[in-house]
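Handout, section 3.2

Students often ask what a structure token actually looks like in practice. Rather than define it abstractly, here is a full record for Putative zinc-finger domain-containing protein. The first block is the sequence as you would receive it.
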Amino acid sequence: MLSCKDVADRASALFDGELSTWDALQIRLHLAMCKGCGRFIEQMRLTDRLTAEVADQGEPLQHEAEDGRFAEILSTLRKEEPRR
């Protein structure tokens, strides 16, 4: 069984589809039993998605628009926040 450190070390490879079927299965088994790692993976996925959204905009945030964009990101995070 993988340790939590193993899952954290391999999380990016999991997202990028770089793991073998066996390695991905071992991570999924660990995630099924470890709520902490499950939350960690959810947070990484959300961060990845938000980063991609900002990158897709193709322009840097301007000072005047930062407050509005910051509020939008916070709103998205609150919607995506895992229920406890």
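Discussion prompt for tutorial groups: Helices lie at 4-15, 21-33, 35-56, 63-80. How would you have guessed this from the sequence alone?
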